[in-house]
Design brief:
Strand content: 5-15%
Radius of gyration: 15 Å
Strand order of the largest sheet: 1-2
Order of helices and strands: EHEHHH
Shape: globular
Number of strands: 2
Number of helices: 4
């Protein structure tokens, strides 16, 4: 199941479909990330965050995520 991070919705999914895996919705995730980004960081940071979702190789995704975290940690720690 793919949904936003609403606790009640996640609980309902777990109760009704206990065998289902849950994944946070990409669009909702990016929208929520905007809440923690200063306007001047929005474009670069979000573009790079979107790139992470384009990875098809798990190891490459992990490496790119580590690089993203390192780059943005000091600038926007709340988002990281």
């Amino acid at each position: 199941m793919v949904s936003d991070d609403h606790a009640g919705l996640k609980q309902a999914i777990a109760e009704i479909l206990p065998e289902a895996a849950w994944q946070r919705c990409y669009v909702h995730f990016l929208r929520n990330a905007l809440d923690y980004l200063p306007r001047k960081a929005n474009d670069d940071c979000l573009v790079e965050l979107r790139w992470l979702y384009d990875r098809h190789d798990l190891e490459q995704a992990r490496q790119d995520l580590a690089g993203w975290l390192k780059k943005w940690e000091a600038k926007i720690s709340q988002a990281v």
